[in-house]
Amino acid sequence: MKALILAAGYGTRLASVIKDTSKSLIPINGRPLIDYIVCRLKDVESLTDIVVVTNNKFYTSFKQWAKTHQDLNIRIVNDKTSTPHQRLGSVGDIHFVWKQEREADDWLIIGGDNLFDQNLKDFMRFALKQDSAITIGVYDIHDTQAASKFGVVALDSNKKVISFEEKPSLPVSSLITMCLYYFPKTTRAYLQEYVSQSGALDAAGSYIQWLCRKKDVYGFQFGGKWYDIGSLESLQDAQEHFR
Q1: Which fold has domain 2-132+179-201+225-241?
Q2: Which terminus of the chain faces fewer neighbouring Cβ atoms within 10 Å, N or C?
């Protein structure tokens, strides 16, 4: 199994604070945010590679960062974009990487601006029991109004996703997706079908919403703390409370 960390954004909403730093490299209590993701990935059995996809602007910075983890097989992939206008989007970056990875592998996809403190062992244990289905990480933010900024899900008693709506204006609950996905190798072909049909490459949540109509998708609910480092407020909150 391989892991893909999505770190090709330009952090435009945080530009006044982080300037020329990738969101994934922002220090949280003295460590780059991405270090916390890598720390969680060490819990995943059978993981062979960690791939980080970034852009031309931050490629050199991530190459330097990777040198601090020489005990791991980390590869940095440049998606060849240089400005926010050129960015491929999260689906576009997954597609970009998968086209280069010819071997059939299971993939664990994590957004590079996700910060959470629960380990991934229980998530993977649950995912591997779902008979080659796709599994996504979900989290209850206990704020229905704030949920409108995310993908909102509902699960049945077996934790199967029975509804998914990307950034709804009137969320039905506060249970949201985390940009954490497990894709068995047998499901990779769906991405090409989605790209060919929709051409929508920006939001991974839109792809998951489409997938829910094609195949069983399950949700594993995380506890503990979780932050989506997408705004100044969330960054300040994480720097103050995450340990």
Answers
A1: Spore Coat Polysaccharide Biosynthesis Protein SpsA; Chain A (3.90.550)
A2: C
